[in-house]
Amino acid sequence: MAEENTEVVETEEVDEEEQEDATFTQSEVDSHISKAVDSALKKRDKEVEERIKQERKEAESLAKLTEKEREAAKLDKQEKQLEKREQEILNKELRADAIDNLIEKDLPKEFADFVVSGDGETTLDNINAVKSAFDKAVNDRVKKSVRQETPGTSRQIKNSNSFNVDEFARENRIIK
Questions:
Q1: Residue 162 in 3-state DSSP?
Q2: What's 118's DSSP letter?
Q3: Staple partner for 65: which of 8, 69, 100, 143, CB 3.0–4.6 Å?
Q4: 3 state SS of 146
Q5: Is the dihedral of CA 86, 104, 106, 123 positive or negative?
Q6: Average pLDDT taken over every residue of the chain
Q7: pTM, to two decimals
Q8: Three-class secondary structure of residue 117 per DSSP
Q9: Where does 65-104 have alpha helices with state H?
C-alpha cells in the first residue's frame, strides 16, 4: 500500500508541472482570438467609413460644378494618379539601377535604399561617395587589426637575452 501512495504522489506532481506549462485553456485562447478579430474588424470598418465620407465629399463637390468643371476635375484626378504611378515606376527603376551599380562596385545591395535619390546622376554620386567612405572604413579597420609592434634591433635582442659568450666559457672552463 505504501508503494501505491508514492506512485499517486509522483503522478500528481507530474500533472501539476504539466498544468504550469499549459497556462491557457481553450476558452481563454478563443476569447483572445475573438478580441483580436473584433479589433481588426472595427479598424477596417472605420477605414471604410472614412473612405466613404471622402468619396461623398468628392461627389458633392462634383455635383455643384458645371459639366466642364466636372470633366476638368476628373481629368485632374486622373493626371494626379498617373503622375503617382510614374513616380513609383521611376523609383523602382532607380532602385534597380542602384542595386546593379552597387553590385558592380562590390558593395552590399542593402545600401540601395540609402543611395537612391531623385535622379540617376545623384544616385550614382551617392553610390560613389558611399564606396569611398566604405572602402576607407574597411581599410582603417584592417590596418588597425593587422597592426603590430615593430621588431627590435639585433643589439636589443642580444642585451635582452643577457647571454655573454665570454662568461659562459669561463664558467665552463673552455677558454683559459
A1: coil
A2: S
A3: 69
A4: helix
A5: negative
A6: 79
A7: 0.44
A8: coil
A9: 67-104
